[in-house]
Amino acid sequence: MPSTILVGTQWGDEGKGRAIDLLSSDAQVVIRCQGGANAGHTVMAGDTTLKLRLVPSSILHQNVTPLIGDGVVVDLEVLLGEIDALAELGISCDRLRVSGNAHVIMPYHRELDKVVERHLGRAQLGTTRKGIGPAYADKATRIGLRVQDMLDMKIFAQKLEVALKEKNALLAKVYNRLPLEAKAIMAQYERYAERLRPYIADTALITWRALQSGQAVLFEGAQGTLLDIDHGTYPFVTSSQPTAAGALTGSGVGPMTVDRVVGVAKAYCTRVGSGPFPTEDHGPDGARLGERGHEFGTVTGRKRRCGWLDAVLLRYAARINSLTDLFVTKLDVLSTSPTVKLCVAYQHEGEQLDEFPWHQSVFHRVEPVYEELAGWDDDISAARSFDDLPEEAQRYVRRIEEVSGVPVRWISVGPEREQMIDMQRQGVKAS
User: Fold this and answer.
1) Residues 50 and 137 reside in one and the same domain
2) Structural contact between residues 226 and 10, judged by C-beta atoms closer than 8 angstroms
3) 95 part of a folded domain
4) 103 is catalytic
5) Do 29 and 162 lie in a common domain?
6) Which helix (H) or strand (E) holds 214?
7) Do 271 and 387 fall within a single domain?
8) What is the pTM of this model?
9) C-alpha distances in Å from residue 174, one per residue of 178, 182, 330
10) How far apart are CA 313 and CA 26, in angstroms?
11) For residue 275, is it within any domain?
12) Of 110, 237, 242, 393, which residue is least crowded by CB atoms under 10 Å?
């Protein structure tokens, strides 16, 4: 495993934390590349369930140097809180490094995120209201504050004054909110700066040196391909680029350093928040998927919308990210389903569409074209090899390979670390 990018192939919540935990065991460096505290990864560590939002999931592996890269927007309250929570569990974050180029989420970002969403009314995007979008907006307009600014609080105060002048005017005159006080913010962030100082580093250089020395590097993605601000279901997307290309810009390395791109796909499909979802099931099947899969957002706790696996979107994700392998999660959730549906195409005004439509108005109106495969009643949570799976489950996995054009390398059949099938290690060839 020289260098691997791991990305979500759907709307996030695919189970990437599980995949990262597995792949991290063979890595020396793991770098989180984009997103913020709106992207949670759930990892099982023995009897402990960890829900991490900023600290890379690889923190559990002592052999790994975990990095938070240039493309991440950092909520310091969340990050330092996670460091403290992990310390209470006996997990040290001394190896963690945070890019000086990463942008900092400020109190006015969170406040703006809340009031703008409320202001949109029925047109709300369904953001997590964590200040992610406003922080990326400031980054783009070049008035953002970065982690490195906290090494000189005089510079930080000057930049804060410029930003706060605009934000307070916006909050007061447009949204009728009280202005935020620079003195209170400075006092809070001076405390953060003192604690953060030992973690600040040039993470792009650390990553490059690791690659040059032949170490295994894992680029940890957050969210999913369909939430990409350029390639996702805009405007119902996140504010960063959770694709393979985004992993490169967010970490500061070039494309020739990448050997493998692993896409994580849930065996069905879910979505949190607003936006089109062609395979969403509003009936008992969708309810069963949500109940069996415990489908609630890691960060927000919101109930996820559930439906069947969408191979049109999976093919799109394979193309956008140049996927080399698939990691299929939660196959066990489909057990007890009499039939399993797989969307292989869309129907729109009498025309069959085999590829993701580029026009959003078309995508909002497509109808899924389903294949129905036989389901299985067996409890597959104890399966440790492909042959342990019932024939119906094997056939479903093979069909995923056929319709996506990407070989399935790993299959998870439960939340525990050992509930995993490694196809390649067992010598199982792709269909």
Assistant:
1) no
2) yes
3) no
4) no
5) no
6) none
7) yes
8) 0.92
9) 11, 20, 45
10) 30
11) yes
12) 110
